[in-house]
Amino acid sequence: MVRINQSKIGETPFQQLLGHNPRIMESWTLLGKVLEKDGQLSVELKEQVRRTLAQRNGCQYCKAKGKPNPHIVDERVLTATGFAEVFARLHGEIPDSVFDVLRDVFSEKEISELIAFICFTTAQQNVGAVLQLEAEA
After folding, report:
1. Is there a contact between 111 and 41 (Cβ–Cβ < 8 Å)?
2. Would you say 127 and 17 are in contact if contact means Cβ atoms under 8 Å apart?
3. Cα separations (Å) of 116 from 14, 52, 57?
4. Mean pLDDT value of segment 116-131
5. Rg, Å, the chain Cα set
6. What is the DSSP letter of 65?
7. Which of 34, 76, 80, 93 is the most buried (most CB within 10 A)?
8. Has residue 137 got a pLDDT over 70?
9. Is residue 9 within 8 Å of 25, Cβ to Cβ?
């Protein structure tokens, strides 16, 4: 059961939790929309990263949107989701050797976007986990 009541402001259950503070909700939503779109990295790659993180971050709402696809063979997606796993386990204490692997596959612009996406997604999923946001029926 969610720990605080959802506000009447916001389009999704997550936004309604933040809707108690409309400026925060609006800014958060805007950043989410920017990060979720195709940028240096594809929407599809980011979705697999989001799903990977959801399994570790404990947000039932996020987990309910699906598990990572176990049949992916794309090197970029596998590297990004592998990095997401390492990030989730080590909480940002990433060894330089991991960045060497990232540099073999991604440009610095792509690495920057990947890390921003992972950090933002982790924050979202932590909010959902702390407030016990449940999966939609």
Report:
1. no
2. yes
3. 20, 15, 16
4. 96
5. 15
6. T
7. 80
8. no
9. yes
Domain 13-130 has CATH 3.20.140.10: no
Q: How far is CA 95 from CA 42, 44, 70, 71, in A?
A: 25, 26, 26, 27
Structure tokens, 88: 């989730």
**The residue to which tokens 């960045």 are assigned:** 99
Q: Which helix (H) or strand (E) holds 84?
A: helix 75-90
Question: Cα–Cα distance between 130 and 51 in angstroms, integer?
Answer: 18
- Written as one letter, the residue type at 97 is S
- For 134, which DSSP code? P
AA letter at 44:
E
- The structure tokens listed for 33 are 């929309």
Residues in the chain: 137
- Does the pLDDT value for residue 39 go beyond 80? yes
Instruction: Give the separation between CA 5 and CA 75, rounded to whole angstroms.
Output: 42
Name every residue whose Cβ is closer than 8 Å to that of residue 114 and which is 6 or more positions away in sequence: 41, 49, 80, 83, 102, 106
Q: What single-letter amino acid sits at 90?
A: L
